[in-house]
Automatic annotation (TrEMBL):
InterPro entries: Acyl_CoA_acyltransferase (IPR016181), GNAT_dom (IPR000182), NAA60-like (IPR045141). Its EC number is 2.3.1.259, 2.3.1.48. It catalyses: L-lysyl-[protein] + acetyl-CoA = N(6)-acetyl-L-lysyl-[protein] + CoA + H(+); N-terminal L-methionyl-[transmembrane protein] + acetyl-CoA = N-terminal N(alpha)-acetyl-L-methionyl-[transmembrane protein] + CoA + H(+). It comes from the Eukaryota. One of its GO terms (molecular function) is protein N-terminal-methionine acetyltransferase activity. It holds the Pfam family Acetyltransf_1. This is N-alpha-acetyltransferase 60. Residues 19-191, 199-372 form the N-acetyltransferase domain.
């Protein structure tokens, strides 16, 4: 399972209890439906749970909190509620809210916590993790809103603490026990949140070495790079690296490290025949993407391409002004290959014995090249 990043831990649980957050999966449909049925006075059809647990169109951020493999709570956020719902039916307030959000409006469709785990902070932590995940997605909503029962004071207090504001009341939103009941609409502006955490992409520092190393080992289990290698681009003493990290709530979610003068750094001592050709083509002004890593639970959210885009822009404005940038990629990693192709890299060469796999066998690597 790919667990989502969270240093949070409820104080009133046993220190040995395993607590984690992950995206909901099809196998979770029965337990999610069961928790929903005891949490809400509404009966949802089974396909409703299938929609966000399967998440075939990547429309939802659906996250569960698990305590010892038991579902303690779940949250479902529609990343683009305008396309999902509001184009079909809406209220005047929601239309105005969509305009205010420049068409980038997310909606908390459901949030439930098992009564045995309530008042531990699970609800607010699920909300925090979900918002951070949404903001790392390519859709990047600017506002998020939700409905809450007018008499659910506990939930209203929790949302208020998280920065949601009561902006509107729909007097007939809920229909329970054959009676209409009012629902409050609470809204949170994600602009400040976005700039503070999800878009927090900064040059790596010496203090980031441990986090960079930990992320690398968690993503590539076979990596055994020495500490001095990480220290080289994090400290960047010779100003010949562009090393950028993406941080969410001060946690490292991904990084890229580019050697801006790879001839002096490495190829002057050791190079392949193809690299010698690239050096001539680039007049020795050759950059190399030494590492591009995104945590497994934040992959396919655009972090990798955004990091690479920022790093290349930084390269072009650096005094070393490389003319060509290249990188190696695992021949089996088709996802990364597609990303690089979209960014203008071309597969120019195959190195048949590029790296060792976990079993100790040589594996080929593709060499992708981009002219700057």
């Amino acid at each position: 399972m790919n667990w989502l990043p969270s240093e949070w831990r409820p104080e009133r649980l046993s220190p040995s209890a395993r607590v984690g957050f992950r995206h909901l999966l099809p196998i979770d449909v029965p337990v999610v439906a069961k928790l929903s049925s005891v949490s809400f006075p509404l009966n949802y059809p089974e396909y409703w749970f299938h929609n966000f647990c399967f998440n075939a169109k990547d429309e939802f951020c659906a996250i569960g909190c698990f305590v010892e493999e038991h579902l303690a709570g779940f949250i479902v956020v529609v990343r683009d509620h305008i396309s999902y719902e509001l184009v079909h039916r809406t209220t005047e307030f929601e239309r105005n809210l969509a305009i205010e959000a420049d068409g980038k409006l997310a909606y908390v469709m459901s949030l439930a916590v098992d009564f045995r785990f309530q008042r531990l902070g699970i609800g607010s932590e699920m909300m925090r993790v979900a918002i951070a995940n949404c903001l790392c997605h390519q859709l990047k909503p600017k506002m998020i809103y939700l409905h809450v029962m007018h008499d659910n004071v506990g939930a209203q207090k929790m949302y208020s603490k998280m920065g949601f504001q009561h902006r509107h009341t729909n007097p007939r939103y809920y229909y329970i026990d054959r009676r209409e009941k009012a629902g409050f609409i609470l809204v949170k502006d994600l602009g400040a949140y976005d700039s503070d955490c999800a878009k927090n992409k900064e040059h790596l520092l010496a203090s980031d070495v441990l986090a960079v190393k930990k992320l690398s080992k968690a993503t590539f289990e076979s990596t055994d790079d020495p500490d001095w290698w990480y220290e080289g681009f994090c400290t960047n003493r010779d100003d010949d690296y562009c090393a950028v990290g993406c941080f969410v709530d001060q946690q490292l979610m991904g990084y890229v490290a580019i050697s801006l003068d790879y001839y002096r750094k490495e190829l002057e001592k050791k190079s392949t025949e193809f690299e010698d050709q690239l050096l001539v083509e680039a007049d020795k002004k050759l950059a190399n993407v030494e590492s591009l890593v995104v945590s497994r639970h934040h992959q396919r959210t655009g972090i990798g391409s955004e990091l690479l885009r920022l790093a290349i822009h930084s390269c072009l404005n650096h005094k070393l002004t490389p003319k060509i940038i290249y990188l190696y990629v695992d021949h089996r990693n088709t996802g990364a290959q597609k990303l690089y192709e979209k960014m203008g890299f071309m597969n120019r060469h195959t190195e048949p014995r590029y790296y060792y796999d976990v079993s100790g066998k040589f594996q080929p690597g593709f060499v992708f090249v981009k002219i700057l």
